[in-house]
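The methods section describes the discrete structure representation at length, but only in general terms. Each protein is reduced to its one-letter sequence and a matching series of backbone shape codes. I believe one specimen quoted in the main text would settle the matter. An entry of this sort, consisting of the sequence and the corresponding backbone structure tokens, reads as follows.
***
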Amino acid sequence: MALFYETPADNRRPHGSYRFDVYSLKAGRRMTLYGKSALCLFIDLEADFEVSALCERALVIPNTKPARVVDFWATRGGVPTFFLLTKQSEAWMNEKKKFAYVDFYKWVADCNAKVVEVLVDEFEKRRVRYDNWSTILQHLISHRGQVSENLVDRCTNLMPAKWRLQDFEKSISDVDAMLVRAAVFTLLTEGKLRCHTIDSLPINPSTEVSRT
């Protein structure tokens, strides 16, 4: 059975949760997310070059009380994957699943898909990462449709093994620096470039980028 989801199955706002309206480049549409943890996981999935398709709240796990919505579905590395946000206090799910979860996990396995449980407790430790990727994604969204394949290819051919962001932008003087930056960020999201400080230091003009 092929699993593919394009729209949320249940997008009702959970009680007391904060709402985020975002644009997904992977889905090609706007999404409504609830809670900071969902936003952080969304950023991780948008930044993951192995993710080719994405949908929020794609499925309600049958027979769960209260109803449990799968936080995200994605095609990751060619494999349909369901992502569940969990807290450390809910780790009992790993060893002592309720029948509804047992049935769900079995159905997923029968479909040659997988479930990934993501601990929300880890997100606060990676704030710099999420700030940086949020900046990158917002830049790409602002310039979507303006960065041609020719520009991306040109940047790829001109890039040395390692360079600073501002230096490379200046090296292509006939193109707006913001479009050059968008091309660089495009290559980052495709996994073709690497920024070793993306998890530790804020992105700035002196940020170093290298080929993978």
Observations:
- Residues 127-142 form the longest helix (16 residues).
